[in-house]
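Hey Z.,

So I finally got round to the 3-hydroxy-3-carboxy-adipic acid thing we talked about over coffee. Here's the setup:
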Amino acid sequence: VDNFKIIESTLREGEQFANAFFDTETKIKIARALDNFGVDYIELTSPVSSPQSYEDCKRICQLGLKAKILTHVRCNMDDAKKAVECGVDGVDLVIGTSSFLREYSHGKSMELIQKTALEVIEYVKSAGVEVRFSSEDSFRSDLVDILALYKAVDRAGVNRVGVADTVGGATPRMVYDLVRTLRGVVGCDIETHFHDDTGCAVGNALTALEAGATHVDTSVLGIGERNGITPLGAFMARMVVTAPDYVTSKYNLKALKSLEELVADAVQINIPFNNPITGFCAFTHKAGIHAKAILANPSTYEIIDPSLFGLTRYVSINSRITGWNAVKSRVEQLGLKMTDEQVKEVTAKIKQMADIRPLAIDDTDSIIRSYHLDLQQ
Ligand code: HCA
Ligand code: CU
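And the result:
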């Protein structure tokens, strides 16, 4: 669990998000920001998708980033050749293996899939490029079929095999079982990719690591096909708690917020209010009981220290559920002197006002200041 690698797919899966359109300059900005954050791999849209995708892929390969550059292509020779031509460090091959996709999408038998996969893998390897093979819709594929396929590609020397929950229907228990079984069958690395249709994408990613996976696919804010995949930020929130030393030493966590803002801006969305870490209220404490304890020791009601991400906590005193300890701390912040009795009295005034209408921080400060002024007269 504490040696995982991130395959950041904002520039591939993320381009499948309904709102996404990345011009070359924006792609380069995002690639640099991801590199600065410290992701291990940056995955790009297939160069076969369009002429501009091909040019952009080449450009990003030439930026000299620390992160390895991957592109994601269908498992066939023509696509693989285009990918290698771009100068990528690695090629992510994908083909659908569920009966749904075999019947309604590409129409290939498992035998043909395997034969093609082995040829393409051999070609990519011979070009000195890293190669991953993934079965799309792994969780609705026949287990015996895909294990045989993974075993064959492992023997052929693939660097990673990938498991994808393409439709977002997998539960953590299903993930654990599949990855655990796969871990016993292949020796290569295991990459995982989770869609978030049922809200399990972060939990599934953690569970996959617990079961022996080595790589997790993410995108900034989770953008991708439909409602997207494991969000980078939420995954960082999860992993900074699970593997603090690894995560804090490896990733530039303080750059998360600006990275999310960059992508949110590029695809014209807001950062969700309840986003882990960067949501506007992620470190806001409101109830008096919470506030009192937080002021004494933040760990009482915080699993993550906001300063790790360059952020600060906020103790709200603008409500009827506030408490006098929180108000006292605000009084001190404002540089005013009051006895505890006086703080309790002004707290009562705040509660009275907050019973009538919602208060803004300025309103509460004015109540405190005018009470303080009255004391002096
Ligand atoms: C898709 C493909 C994919 C591929 C994942 C992978 C998926 O858009 O359908 O290569 O591991 O979700 O299956 O994103
Ligand atoms: Cu996907």
